[in-house]
Amino acid sequence: MALTSAQWDITDPAAARRHIAPGDVVVNCAAVTNVDVAEAEPERADAVNTVGAENVARACAEAAASLIHLSTDYVFSGNAGRPYDIDDETGPLSVYGRTKLAGEQAVLAALPEAYVVRTAWVFEGGDGSDFAAVMRRAAAGSGEVEVVADQIGSPTYVGDLCAALLQIADGGVDGPVLHAANAGPASRFDQAQAVFAELGADPDRVRPIGSDRHPRPAPRPSYSALSSVKSAEAGLTPLRPWREALAEALATHRG
User: Which of 12, 25, 41, 106 might form a disulfide with 54, Cβ 3.0–4.6 angstroms?
Assistant: First the structure.
């Protein structure tokens, strides 16, 4: 059963108790994920990303339910210059990153057997608002597109992420913190060029720019790619390379 934020307000502790029953496996994807909105509305971000996450964890603990809590690469500073693994030092730069890290900590304090699954740059590639979908529409148009080339992350196909979450729910994976992201670091520029190429558009229409060309309210880590090495050691099947996953995602929505 999938519930929207309108159906379940996780900032309300009583609502969490109403929705969770013994034996349930709860996957908490609820969050204020717009990084700039979180920066402008820190109280709202804290209410959802931290307090709301704790409410869900406490309700799961009371109901003897299992919990998989989704988190983010933005808990890291981006200063390491290499992919981050599960035990690397955190250092969020933004309100979003800080509230998500606090949410991780609150979840594990309330329910130590919960799973915290960090992922990044999730895309579906269809008609939505994710980056691959936006670039898909741009590829169908004409003219050049400017895309930031100095922020590196881990593009992750939602279908592959869901498969990882199902594997965790089925058991046999050690926690509590895991990384589930498609393999290989990439910049937004890399990802955009790949979308154009997969769709038969000229990838040279994508022009690289620095993030300083379009300043944003919230700081972003410059290199927040995720490593899944230790998650694989914990029993989680590594996700395939992001370019392969992107090709499948775009093919699914083609014509």
Answer: 106
Each residue of 163-215: pLDDT tens digit? 999 999 999 999 999 999 999 999 999 999 999 999 999 999 999 999 999 88
Please, what sign has the CA dihedral across residues 36, 208, 149, 252? positive
Domain count, the chain: 1
What CATH number has the domain bearing residue 44?
Answer: 3.40.50.720
Q: How many Cα atoms occupy the beta-carbon half-sphere of 185 within 13 Å? A: 18
Question: Is the backbone peptide bond immediately before 22 cis, with ω within 30 degrees of 0?
Answer: no
Residue-wise burial string across 83-97, b where 16 or more C-beta atoms lie within 10 A, e elsewhere: bbbbebeeebbbbbb
155 — phi, psi (to 5°)?
-60, 135
- 86-142 pLDDT, tens digit per residue, is 999 999 999 999 999 999 999 999 999 999 999 999 999 888 889 999 999 999 999
Domain that holds residue 70: 13-252
CA–CA dist 219, 216 (Å, integer): 7
Where does residue 6 rank: exposed (0-12), middle (13-18), buried (19+ CB within 10 A)? exposed
Among 74, 84, 96, 157, the one annotated catalytic: 96
Q: From 75, 71, 103, select the one nearest 89 (Cα to Cα).
A: 75
